[in-house]
Write a structure and sequence with these properties.
The protein is mainly α. The chain has 9 helices and 2 strands, in the order H-H-H-H-H-H-H-E-E-H-H.
Length: about 230
Amino acid sequence: MSYYQYDGGRRGFMSNVPTAVKNLIIINVLVMIMTSLNENFMYEKFALFYPTSPFFHWWQPLTHMFMHGGFWHLFFNMYTLFIFGSVLERVWGTKKFLIFYFVTGFGAALVHTGVEWIQMQYWMAQAADGSMAALNSIHSLKMTPTVGASGAIYGLLMGYAMLYPDSIMSLVFPPISMKAKWFVLIFAGIELLTGVTGTGGGIAHFAHLGGLIFGFILIMYWKKKRRLYNRFD
């Protein structure tokens, strides 16, 4: 499918979007449309479930990154992907950018599942003592799907902040501006606090942290190997 159209010699908007970012946005939008047509099937097959859940499939650590919980969830993730992902792909090239994107996405899923495993061990011990509340919590965890590209998106934020730490980032709400390095540190602190305290229910805070952590690790690895600005294309 071409995104070029005749407009007096000027190229269309999508032609200016880097290849990987453009295709990731297209895939995410298409998956959202498919989800709206058959929500139960899409969630059961492609959202991420705990490994002992009857709904778990081996491909879900990948496919859950293209699933979203609604329009605004999709919009904000894709907007952030467009803004920061475009910068990183132009610096790194398509192949290296995709490696970074999926490493942080898989890392987010790993951290999220690891935290669920810790919760599961606690509830299983409680259930062994006859706690019905613990049994309900175990059942709820196994039946709860996780969706979204947010882990990889937070990884992109970390990548951008480490490449351009002193660039100014602005928020719409609250209307404040700050350097990228402080922006990411504050976000990390908020995610850690809300994750530990259990506030902000329905959001996979530790997945966000996982994306930040794996983004930091990969950037530091490339720096150590003097390959941070090398393109893999």
